[in-house]
Amino acid sequence: MTEAIFGLIGVLVGSGISWFQTYWISKRTDIKNAKYLAIRVVCVLDKFVEDCADVIKDDGLSYGQRNSEGCLEPQVKSPGPPIFPNDVDWKSIDQNLMYNLLSLPSEVEAGDRMINFSSDIAFPPDYEEWFDERKFHYSQFGITACKLSDELTNKYNIKKKTYNDWNPKEDLRNELNKVLEIREKRMIKQQQFVNSVLKKQQ
Questions:
Q1: Which residues pair with residue 65 across a beta bridge?
Q2: Considering the domain boundaries, does residue 17 fall inside one?
Q3: Is 16 a member of any domain?
Q4: pLDDT digits (tens, 9 = 90+) for 82-94
Q5: Residue 107 is part of which domain span?
Q6: Cα–Cα distance, 15 to 172 (Å, whole number)
Q7: Contact in structure between 183 and 140 (CB atoms under 8 Å)
Q8: pTM for the full model?
């Protein structure tokens, strides 16, 4: 009877050790996969932030000059959605973080559709609505990418990219505030116009 009890205890201890070894190896693998993903994705996000910063600085002038027709035209191509690597294990990171990362490309695609739509209501020579709409969306995309990059670098102890005399996050926020102010003034003018028309019809 005693031998049977000791035998059972030995089996349980052996099973426990085996389970712990499997769990420990799996946990270490998940940590390595998560850090690998973070490094790869942070590189993509940092490049995307720089591209967004280039977009919001685009004033439509080439070396300070308009085009041959006297109009503004974009000098920087919109980057489109960030393309994340395929060789990473998305299940290795927090689910909320994974969702926020994977939803960013679709948000950029939706923003690009709004930008394209604004081209139908933008008129020469300045195409203000189109330029403002592009700055409005890409400043937000850049800010979102900055936050996601910061979250990954902090969570997985990755060295953050440093910039000498430039703070892309600050530029993005400043431009967003400017565009929001312009959009608000435009809405007020539009509402005043509508009110004046309605008043004439009374």
A1: 62
A2: no
A3: no
A4: 999 999 999 999 9
A5: 26-201
A6: 56
A7: no
A8: 0.82
